[in-house]
Design goal:
4 helices, single chain, globular, 5 strands
Length: 163
Amino acid sequence: MKFPFAKFLTAAITAFGMVAPTPAQPVSQNMELMGAIAREIVNSGEPQGVDWVEVSAIFSIDADGDVNGSYGYVYDARGQAHAAAFLEDPIEREVKAYRDWLLLKGKKGDKGIIKMLFQFNRQTRRVRADFEYEDPRRWQVTPANLDARVRELRPRLGAADGK
């Protein structure tokens, strides 16, 4: 009686409780586009002189999808915030590409986002984005809310639970 090797191997793996590796899953287009934004932020070298771990960048976007404002904070390993702006062309192009993709996936007649909060951790490579469609003052920093807003915007993407 012939016992094919493939069946033997499958039986051996099952018997020993081993699991065959699953094929790598393709990266979603959403993650690809967010990864491109993160890559351009890292490549920008901003802000200079800060060894940052996490970033929160707020992008204001006009009706044409162009970035017309940017501000945010990078956070070092101790959690100390440092003000930053991300107005370099490569970053703006990737934000526009992401906004255009979101618009394409959205409902017919959707005007698109007017602000985006983009967060990234360089060590864990985790990203998160939040969007605003109507309120241009969302995430606005003022002298009265500066300390609270800096704490609120800290990404905390270092652990699996996001804390």
